[in-house]
């Protein structure tokens, strides 16, 4: 069911929501949170589809805020609020309100959104594109317990990570971090299988991919070893190689779907490690509303502490791969291109042994 309102108010929107729910017999008590999506017209469709799909796991009221740019000075002085209400099958397992702000009211989006929030329910704000420099100080971000950004959508994604680190406030998170959850779980599980000391790590992936940098920063923060960042043609993350006292551990995903886990002395294993869509990422973020301390620690590790990015050479024809490559890497001397990482700050909790920290980071 869809209802269009032109030149309306927040009060009229609330009344229309109640009327629509009664018309289809759907109560509002089953919704668990309010998801506020701040986007533009170009990205609104994809964002609403992702939010609708995520609502099947987390029934919620989705408020899509679109600030319309006025074309003339006269239009900029005329405030107008238009709304589109979707309930039932058109809104997944919740309800969706698309609000378009015209004129001066666009500068006061928080005043429009506040009366539309579900009472006594947590609030999550998501910026698919054009996130503010400091989400916690943004008027809409200040209403939320969790603030979700996506550095992958920025013009300079790696530099954007530094901005996120400088402005970090507990409750902030980023979809580039969410994308590497399966990688972190798989690497932590691999280290659980063998008693070893990690000596050096190489992370291979696309250039200007913030998820690759975040994974390298997480490994550097947790293991306190030299990290080498190398490039590949992608897609996304393609490989992680760890040189350990037990031998080489390699997690290789050349096609963006199926990965191979190679541990010295063990047979190769095929593992599912597909690239996930935005709806799955948002659904994962909505599962937890408390601050992500692991993300904060990895973010503060800093991109500047990784080595200068170098081109990753393609394997020569006939070069061994899989278990053979892992066995060969065990015999070769590791030659990290960076100096030893500086002594970690005790306050950051990095004085634990590398093995114990890797196990604790898989949450």
Automatic annotation (TrEMBL):
<dbReference type="Pfam" id="PF20171">
    <property type="entry name" value="OpcA_G6PD_C"/>
</dbReference>
<feature type="region of interest" description="Disordered">
    <location>
        <begin position="313"/>
        <end position="363"/>
    </location>
</feature>
<feature type="domain" description="Glucose-6-phosphate dehydrogenase assembly protein OpcA N-terminal">
    <location>
        <begin position="51"/>
        <end position="164"/>
    </location>
</feature>
<dbReference type="Pfam" id="PF10128">
    <property type="entry name" value="OpcA_G6PD_assem"/>
</dbReference>
<dbReference type="InterPro" id="IPR004555">
    <property type="entry name" value="G6PDH_assembly_OpcA"/>
</dbReference>
<protein>
    <submittedName>
        <fullName>Glucose-6-phosphate dehydrogenase assembly protein OpcA</fullName>
    </submittedName>
</protein>
<dbReference type="InterPro" id="IPR046801">
    <property type="entry name" value="OpcA_G6PD_N"/>
</dbReference>
<feature type="compositionally biased region" description="Low complexity">
    <location>
        <begin position="313"/>
        <end position="334"/>
    </location>
</feature>
<feature type="domain" description="Glucose-6-phosphate dehydrogenase assembly protein OpcA C-terminal">
    <location>
        <begin position="170"/>
        <end position="299"/>
    </location>
</feature>
<dbReference type="InterPro" id="IPR046802">
    <property type="entry name" value="OpcA_G6PD_C"/>
</dbReference>
């Amino acid at each position: 069911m869809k209802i269009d309102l032109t030149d309306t108010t927040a009060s009229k929107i609330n009344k229309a929501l109640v009327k629509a729910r009664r018309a289809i017999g759907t109560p509002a008590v089953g919704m668990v949170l309010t998801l506020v999506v701040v986007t533009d017209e170009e990205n609104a469709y994809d964002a609403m589809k992702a939010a609708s799909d995520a609502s099947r796991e987390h029934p919620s009221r989705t408020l899509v805020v679109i600030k319309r740019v006025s074309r003339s000075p006269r239009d900029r002085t005329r405030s107008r609020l238009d709304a589109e209400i979707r309930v039932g099958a058109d809104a997944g397992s919740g309800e969706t309100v698309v609000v378009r702000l015209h004129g001066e009211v666009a500068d006061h989006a928080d005043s429009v959104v506040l009366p539309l929030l579900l009472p006594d329910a947590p609030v999550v704000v998501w910026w698919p594109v054009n996130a503010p420099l400091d989400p916690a100080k943004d008027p809409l971000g200040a209403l939320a317990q969790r603030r979700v950004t996506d550095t992958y959508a920025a013009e300079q994604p790696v530099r954007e990570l530094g901005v996120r680190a400088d402005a970090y406030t507990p409750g902030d998170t980023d979809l580039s971090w969410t994308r590497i959850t399966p990688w972190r779980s798989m690497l932590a599980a691999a280290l659980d299988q063998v008693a070893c000391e990690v000596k050096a790590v190489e992370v291979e992936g696309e250039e200007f991919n913030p998820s690759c940098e975040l994974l390298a920063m997480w490994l550097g923060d947790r293991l306190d070893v030299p990290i080498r960042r190398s490039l590949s043609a992608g897609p996304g993350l393609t490989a992680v190689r760890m040189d350990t006292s037990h031998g080489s551990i390699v997690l290789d995903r050349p096609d963006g779907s199926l990965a191979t886990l190679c541990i010295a002395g063990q047979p190769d294993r095929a593992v599912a490690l597909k690239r996930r869509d935005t709806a799955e990422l948002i659904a994962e973020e909505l599962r937890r509303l408390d601050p992500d301390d692991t993300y904060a620690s990895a973010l503060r590790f800093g991109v500047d502490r990784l080595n200068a990015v170098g081109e990753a050479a393609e394997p020569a024809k006939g070069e061994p791969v899989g278990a053979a490559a892992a066995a060969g890497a065990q015999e070769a001397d590791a030659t990290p291109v960076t100096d030893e990482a500086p002594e970690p700050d005790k306050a950051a909790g990095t004085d634990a042994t590398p093995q114990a920290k890797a196990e604790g980071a898989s949450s």
